[in-house]
Design goal:
This protein is mainly α. Helices cover 81% and strands 0% of the residues. It contains eight helices and no strands. The longest helix is centred in the middle third of the chain and has 44 residues.
């Protein structure tokens, strides 16, 4: 539930901020109000595209059984981990220019295609955030309780709306930039946990060798089979008795992420 809340909060907050940026631009540049109506239609279309992706994922899952289903679900975990990582690194490199870029895209679309272009820009911006959220949630659903996942997702969406409202009203001097930076780090931790879950599935199916299993046993300190241990394991990828293959995957992930983070920061 906590992971679903956090991911949906973060992704929905970005979608709210994007919608707010586009709305502010149209309010200042479109006296007729038609652009804003096109914006709302585009936002609805983007949300619809994201739900369509969710429906497609569930449809594909229903058609698969046995080993094919395991491969599909494992692949989804890898995709979710990769998307989270790519999104965080992209935001780290381009986040400061996002507002100017959205304004430029909207101005160009409005000039070339009128209000249809405005709707398309809004739909694509929201569909991207929504599609990422759907894939993240689908990946998490492989490891947890669906009712708790849904509750966490709904709470995350409501929390994002409240955060965006606070930011818009400048209440409590909310530092939205700091929130996004801190949440980026937590998202990378969550992505590494999804990666370890995918590696565990490959090890369990015999598609990867464990090399050495376990490397250590820290279950006396924190057993990932207990409720508290599982919460930490689901969020961080902690394992009380890790296989060497999992450790190597985890270390490689963080090595690549730290290198890319520093490189994108210089860019």
């Amino acid at each position: 539930m906590g992971n679903a809340f956090f991911v949906v909060w973060r992704e929905s907050l970005e979608a709210f901020l994007i919608a707010g940026i586009l709305y502010a631009w149209l309010k200042a540049n479109d006296d007729s109000g038609q652009g804003r109506r096109a914006l709302f239609l585009g936002l609805a279309a983007g949300a619809g595209l994201a739900m369509l992706l969710g429906w497609a994922l569930l449809t594909v899952q229903d058609e698969l059984t046995g080993e094919a289903l395991d491969m599909f679900q494992t692949a989804t975990l890898f995709v979710a981990a990769g998307l989270i990582t790519q999104m965080v690194l992209w935001m780290h490199k381009h986040g400061r220019q996002m507002k100017a870029r959205l304004h430029a895209d909207l101005a160009a679309a409005a000039e070339k295609s009128g209000h249809l272009g405005v709707a398309v820009v809004a739909a694509l911006a929201v569909a991207r955030e929504g599609a990422e959220t759907v894939i993240f949630l689908y990946g998490m659903a492989q490891e947890g309780d669906l009712s708790a996942l849904l509750l966490g997702a709904l709470a995350g969406f409501a929390g994002a709306g409240a955060t965006a409202w606070l930011a818009a009203k400048s209440l409590a001097r909310l530092n939205i930039g700091l929130l996004l930076r801190l949440s980026s780090i937590l998202l990378l931790v969550l992505a590494s946990a999804l990666l370890i879950s995918a590696i565990d599935r490959l090890l369990g199916a015999g598609w990867l060798p464990p090399l050495l299993d376990p490397v250590w046993d820290s279950s006396a300190l924190l057993d990932d089979g207990t409720k508290a241990g599982k919460l930490i394991a689901d969020f961080s990828g902690y394992r009380a008795r890790p296989a060497l293959t999992s450790l190597l995957a985890w270390a490689t992930y963080w090595g690549v992420v730290i290198f890319a983070w520093r490189r994108s920061g210089r860019g």
